[in-house]
Specification:
With 233 residues, the chain is mostly helical. The protein has nine helices and no strands. It folds into two domains: 93 residues, no CATH class; 134 residues, no CATH class.
């Protein structure tokens, strides 16, 4: 039962993340207007908003104008539903599990917004980082004490990339948060995997082309979290 609740929560959170990123990109409020078709702007009914199911019932097309609906949203909804259920299976219905899920949602919204606009909301970025570091301040403090020099070296390297306009400040904040909350070495693995994913996706565009890095960073983090959890099965 707990796993089903987290499964539903994951699907709803992924759907909400897609909505948030789209609204932030358009400069719209999260509350108004209500959900609508991006093509014909017709307001959506309740059954069309059910994660995954709404997309399937419509056959991947708008019920009103028959325009194709991106498959990204239902794929993310299904993936994060499974991810949240997996986290619940290990940590149960606990505050720790809920905070982990909230952290996944924070990363997903930032990644989607960065993908759409090559920027992220300042309040969401810094507010989320501050809240999660405060929630796990003991872990963050232990990482600072054990790997302070390594963190300083990584920050200097990332600041150098920012100075050359090869990296964004949001990327640096997210990487620092990942390392503080998950440990320096785990964060380093995430960064390495994210760089591989980024190069694999964008190597044909050339070095001068700009591309969002947070989607690759989020993908690398989720892949390692899943890998570690599966190893515990």
């Amino acid at each position: 039962m707990q796993e089903f609740l987290f499964f539903s929560l994951g699907a709803c959170c992924a759907s909400f993340a897609v909505c948030c990123a789209d609204r932030f990109a358009k400069g719209q409020s999260l509350l108004f207007p209500g959900s609508y078709c991006d093509h014909c702007f017709h307001p959506l009914t309740w059954w069309q908003l059910i994660p995954v199911v709404g997309w399937l019932l419509q056959g991947g097309k708008c019920f009103f104008c028959h325009a194709k609906i991106s498959i990204l949203s239902p794929c993310l909804e299904l993936f994060y539903a499974c991810l949240f259920a997996l986290l619940c299976s290990f940590y149960g219905l606990t505050l720790f599990a809920l905070i982990l899920c909230a952290f996944q949602l924070w990363l997903l919204v930032l990644a989607l917004e960065d993908r759409l606009t090559m920027s992220v909301s300042t309040y969401l970025l810094y507010g989320g980082a501050a809240l999660f570091i405060a929630a796990f301040w003991r872990t963050a403090w232990l990482t600072l004490c054990q790997n302070g020099l390594e963190l300083a070296g990584i920050l200097l390297f990332l600041f150098g990339l920012q100075f050359k306009r090869k990296f964004g400040s949001a990327d640096t904040i997210v990487i620092l948060t990942l390392m503080l909350l998950n440990g320096f070495y785990f964060g380093s693995k995430v960064l390495f995997l994210a760089a591989c994913i980024f190069l694999l996706l964008h190597w044909t565009k050339g070095p001068a082309a700009k591309a969002a890095f947070l989607p690759s960073l989020t993908a690398g983090y989720v892949c390692l979290v899943l890998f570690n959890q599966i190893l515990r099965l």
